[in-house]
Amino acid sequence: MTDRIVQDIEALAALFKSGGWDELRVEGVGVSILLSNDLSTPSIGGGAAAAPSAPPLSSTAGVGAAPSAAPPAPTQAASASRNQAIDPAWAPVVAPNLGTFYRSPKPGSAPFVEIGQRVAQDTEICLLEVMKLFTSVTAGISGTVRQISAADAELVEGGQPLFYIEPA
Fold it and tell me: CA-to-CA distance for 120 and 51, rounded, in angstroms?
């Protein structure tokens, strides 16, 4: 559960950094997060300035690197697939944004696609989740899935290849 919270905060911090925002406040039951580029911004609790909260933001990015480096054990097919050479004729399907990559619609269910499966342009191939918002990713091209480049439940970045499809 704690790793999940760290991943969510890391995703939120990355979105804040790339979004060009000056300040972002998130408040919920038992949690208050303030991200600010202005060191004079008071903290959510009304206490000290946000300067003491700045180091956790930078350390969050460092902490997030550990879960990304050691994702949950991928399936044998996905693991073998990532070690396979990429044919230049294959088209990459990239992550549209930062998020947690999911191969199946819900835990315990079958993956959307497998290696060797034929897909159409509008075939849903995975989900990306950021802060409980799920984005469906479609193949975008008709062909055969040749490689799965991300592990299930792995944090991926926008533009990162998730799959390689051999065009039909």
Answer: 50
In tens, the pLDDT along 27-64 reads 766 667 777 777 766 655 544 333 333 333 333 333 33
Taking CA atoms, 154 is separated from 28, 60, 68, 91, in Å, by 25, 16, 6, 21
Q: How far is residue 123's CA from residue 117's CA, in Å, rounded to a whole number?
A: 11
Do 108 and 115 meet the contact criterion of CB atoms below 8 Å apart?
A: no
User: Of the residues 50, 69, 88, which one is the last residue of a structural domain?
Assistant: 69
The residue range of the domain holding 8 is 2-69
CB neighbour list of residue 72: distance below 8 Å, 6 or more residues apart: 151, 152, 153, 154
Q: Which helix (H) or strand (E) holds 34?
A: strand 31-36
Cα(160)–Cα(143) distance, integer angstroms: 20
- Reading the block at residue 76, the tokens are 């044998």
Q: What is the number of structural domains in the chain?
A: 2
Using a cut of 0.85, tell me whether the model's pTM lies above it. Answer: no
Q: What is the three-class DSSP state of 154?
A: strand
Query: In this predicted model, what pLDDT tens digit does every residue of 123-159 receive, in sequence order?
Result: 999 999 999 999 999 999 999 999 999 999 999 999 9
Residues 56 and 102 placed together within one structural domain of the fold: no
In whole angstroms, what is the distance from residue 100 CA to residue 160 CA? 12
Give the HSE-up count for residue 157: Cα atoms under 13 Å, Cβ half-sphere: 9
